[in-house]
Amino acid sequence: GASSKTVCSYQDVLDHLNLTTDNSVFKLTRPVLDYTHPTMVELDIILYAILAVIEKTQTFIPFIWATMIWNNERISWDPAQFCGITQISVPRDMLWKPDLFIYEMIQKDDSPLNPYMYVSHDGMVISEEDMKVVSTCKMDVHKFPFDTQRCNITIGSAIHYADEMRVLPFSNSSRATQFSREVMKTQGEWEFLQLSIASYNFTFNNRQWEQLIYTFTMRRRPLLHVINFLLPILFFLSLDLASFFIADHRGEKLGFKVTVLLAISVLLLILNDILPSMSNKTPLIATYCIVIFALMLLSLLETILVTYLMEKDSASLEKLRLRDDWEDKQEKVKIDNCNTEEKRQTCCSCICKVSDGEKQHEMLPVAEEV
Fold first, then answer.
1. How far from chain centre, in Å, is Cα 129?
2. What angle do CA 12, 15, 18 make, to 5 degrees?
3. What is the widest separation between alpha-carbon atoms in the chain?
4. Which of 24, 68, 71, 30 is nearest to 46 (CA)?
5. In whole angstroms, what is the distance from residue 314 CA to residue 304 CA?
6. Residue 26 CB: number of other CB atoms within 10 A?
């Protein structure tokens, strides 16, 4: 006779477990049969992308994959009775979930949630989520743009302390770092270096709480800032030094230096938009810009002083020239007057001599006649 083949479905497993949306047994309380048993939650976080690192607001925005694994003691079935089904997927709102949250998160995640979770025959529940985390991060920009930043994501339970729920890492630091490098899609100007995992316990209200701290280490790629910021400032300084070879006529040199100084001011405004308002140490790039700005300012003041002294010297020379011209004119007038007097005296002496001669000549005949 023909052999009958048993047909099984996921719904048969749900009916066996009595797992329905109306059954609140699976989602109201922590899924343990004995309340003294802590729920072990294994957490695995993989960095998928570095979306933004904003120094001005001290904000770190990664895109991560988070996987939570815990045991639900109320769920179990024999796969042999259900055609070898070892795992089913159920909607998220049908089961209890750990109340884990990120301490550094400053903005609610708006990424779409995965609507399903996997449930294994031995009661293991696997929840996978991908989320965009907008978190705060204390950054050290002292060596900007050659800096390395370390930002933490601290994960812990909101109300369950360590005796009720343990939070354990699923992967160690080296495995999480290697897997993050393999799946990472975008990094922007940042180069991902390492993802380290550490467990931290603290006591609050006579209860011990457990946290997992994921530290993301990133190094900035400085090429863009060197080309767009550091080199232009150095070029402007070179132009300012080259301006000493410009002849200082009609204020051209002074106008050129003022123009270069205004260009440096624009770059300083751009730097002000990048760096945070408060920092433990003054950024080296700010010191670099201020020193160059001060040198150019001193150069401008030197040009103003030289221009002033040159104009003052020119005015003095002009006064001396006018005085010499006036003295020359006075001397010339005196010489002319003297020449005029001499001519008059010479003419008078000549006339007198001529008159005496004529008188003697006229008197001679009279003497002869007598």
1. 31
2. 155
3. 208
4. 68
5. 15
6. 19
Global pTM reads 0.77
Determine the pLDDT at residue 109.
82
The CA-based angle 332-333-336, given to 5 degrees, is 85
Residue ranges of the chain with pLDDT lower than 70? Answer: 1-5, 248-250, 277-279, 341-370
* R_g (Cα) of the chain, nearest Å: 49
Whether the CB-CB separation of 65 and 45 falls below 8 Å is answered with yes
Per-residue model confidence (pLDDT) at position 340: 73
> Would you say 49 and 80 are in contact if contact means Cβ atoms under 8 Å apart?
no
Length of the chain: 370
Q: Which two tokens stand for residue 337?
A: 């007057």
Tell me the Ramachandran region of residue 95: left when phi exceeds 0, alpha when psi lies from -120 to 50, beta otherwise: beta
For residue 62, whether the previous peptide bond is cis, meaning omega lies within 30 degrees of 0, is no
pLDDT at 363: 46
3-class DSSP state for residue 166?
strand
Predicted local confidence at residue 336, as pLDDT? 75
CA angle, residues 27, 31, 37, in degrees to nearest 5: 155
Alpha-carbon dihedral angle through residues 133, 96, 159, 156, given to the nearest 10 degrees: -40
Asked if 169 and 212 touch (Cβ cutoff 8 Å), the reply is yes
Query: What is the C-alpha to C-alpha distance for residues 268 and 288, in angstroms, rounded to an integer?
Result: 11
Q: Which residue blocks in the chain are alpha helix, DSSP H? A: 10-17, 173-183, 223-225, 231-242, 252-274, 284-369
